[in-house]
Design goal:
heterotrimer, A mainly alpha (289), B alpha/beta (237), C mainly alpha (313), B: 237 residues, alpha/beta, 6-stranded mixed β-sheet, 10 strands, globular, C: 313 residues, 14 helices
Amino acid sequence: MTPLFQQLVLGLLIGGLYGLAAAGLSLVFGVLKVLNVAHGQLIMLGGYGAFWLFALRGLDPFASLAVVIPAALVAGGVLYWTLFGWVVRAPEETRVKNSLLIGFGLALALEAAAVRLWTADERSVTTGYAGAVLTVAGLAVPVVRLASLALALALCGGLHLVLARWRWGRAIRATAEDWEAALMTGIDVRRAYLLAFALGTALAGAAGTLVSVGYSISPSIGLEWTLKALIVVVLAGLGSMLGTFVGGLVLGLAEAVSATVFGGPYREVVGLVVFFVVLVARPRGLFVR
Amino acid sequence: MLEVRGVEAAYGPFLALSGVTLTARPGEIVALLGPNGAGKTTLIRCITGLLRPRAGGIRWEDAPLDRVPAHAIVERGIAVVPEGRRLFGAMTVEENLELGAFVPRARPQRAARLEHVYTIFPMLRERRRQITRALSGGQQQMVAIGRALMAGPKLLLLDEPSLGLAPRLVESIFDVLREINRSGVSILLVEQNVQAALTLSHRAYLLEAGRVAGEGSAAALLDDPRVRRAYLGPLAR
Amino acid sequence: MTGRRSRALGLATAAALATVPLVVRRDDVLNFLFLVLLSVTLAESWNIVAGYAGQVNLGHAAFFGLGALTTRALWIAGAPVLGAMVAGAAVAVGFALLIGAAAFRLRGAYFAIGTLALGEILRITVGNVRAEISTLPAATIAGYRLAHRYYLALALAAAAVAVVAALGGSRLGLGMRAIREDEEAAEASGVGALRLKLLALALSTALAGLAGGLFAYYHISYYPAHPFSPTWTFDALLITFIGGVGTVHGPVLGAVFYVFLKEYLAIRWVDFHLLIFGLLFVAIVLLLPGGLVEAAARLGALARARVLTAIRK
């Protein structure tokens, strides 16, 4: 039985990152009704940001969050101004579809640019403490991944607080629910969109940093992470950041179980099948709270 | 104070307003009456900046209003209680009210105004931590009015505040509106409940098929046999 | 372009391409043209569902892959290649109809991400079940004739263009476009939306399956999961959008442009074509929804107007 439990521990650890990846996508999707399929590529770039800071400046990857997150905020703002801000003028159905197409083009361009900048090789940030392992009840818990899980939870919780307490956080939630009513209460909806997109990108950057520490990055990981985030968003629904985080944990555990039962190569398939079934079962349900 | 002059507005090819002219003066309650589809809500959408008039102009405090972006209208002192209330249903009562004071002009007094709204609607104080969607229709209407008051408006627009409410509740809502007006807030009221609206307001406009079909003091309109026939029905006193 | 003129131009192009193997004896030219023709077929097949029925299918590679998988297996087992390709198309269509009814419950972007998931499910599964590389037997390699592949590709591309052109003027195509514009309104006026969408998907996946079969017939060795890779879908999508989605000529124009850029740039810079095409694609979605075909039409109109004013002067 130990292999299963060991798998579950590892599944839980990566599940936290799934949750963090999904939180950013969910925020953007829920508020702007824009499906950014380049979210995974933004995660990938966040990972390379941390990798660069470590390789060139020797900055500890966890400390580099303090650089990556603000940089990603700015990058998100730029992406909104140059690309996604154009899409939000369209009615909702066109908006989702066009955003999907734009995200797709952006994903290709970012991936190609990353290959150029960092080659197609797999990389990861290997710190001095990378190999540290905690043993709890006979189960191995890699310390770096445990720290990543804790940080992912802290970031999701932080976003929750921002949305609950901050004046513009509430404006973002109001915009997500009913943008016309938000306009009528005097909220500059465009600015709420911009902020939500920038926050979503910042979360992607943070997720990428954590991925580069405990796991590995390469230019092609984008699609995989977009899919993971989408699966979690579909499973957890929109509206609650902590719910999304829990959804990520559930996906991590489900993958662990399926890897044990069906074999390692199938760990991804189960999530995708569930995703498709849930999607078809409630084809218009994603926006329904 | 509010001047609507010759406003035309359309949804695509469908002309909803064809030359509407009306005014609301400081301290007035003006009712906007008319059947469904007459263009009442369209006019409210024009004033709140959600729909741009195709022709004509809207002026507010001697400055054009129809070029002001929708989110900046509240800052000018015009707040709206929209049709169907349009509350943020997943948020609490208090969050909804505080969002009413989102604009800079309302922020300094928001604690005092919140207290004021809770004095007008004590029920809301009890339910301030509840999710708005879980409230009854009447309570939601109170939140909607409270949210608009939080902006500290000089002019309050109300679109069908009595819709779907029990008669007793309508009466108490209208009492509240009278109180709000006495404190110096002008009111533009869109209503289907003509009797109640004319009893409350000082003046009224009759809107039919996108144009003004009649106007006058509320008392005169209440006595006008045509109005009585068309809006109040044969059974009206 | 009028129907008759464009048909004549199409036939002339096909005839000219048919003489290429007789005139040009260079494999690299034939290989290049083969890739263009394969891309035309794949893009036109994707165009049927996207351009006419308005659904962005991000799982298109699954059908290309199924065609390749089936064709390769039957052909290596001794079946004639054309029969094997038809069987491959049949499998692709069968799978399409199996999942189509469920997938078409999804609208717009949800259809796109749902089909993306389906494609990935198939790719991962095939990669696991058939992990070893598929190589042709030595005897087959010895008898390999590039020209055969080339003519097959030409015939298939011509057929794909003809199908899309025929669809454009037909009642069927009209119904599909009605769905693209407004599904509810189309239903209300008696267009059976689901039936038409399934028909579009069947046509589209039949062509994709055949293209997959051609891929299996062309390549000497490849990993069986490779034709299931989402990059095939992305290629088709990029080519179609950049050329002009919902047009007959768009995918042809897009394919020539795409393959040229890809082959030319690959020499000096890996994947650089994707950077260019990704950015170009974004620009087209934002600024020029009609793609290159629309740009050409606009330029043509502009030039004509210039000429006319010049004449008047």
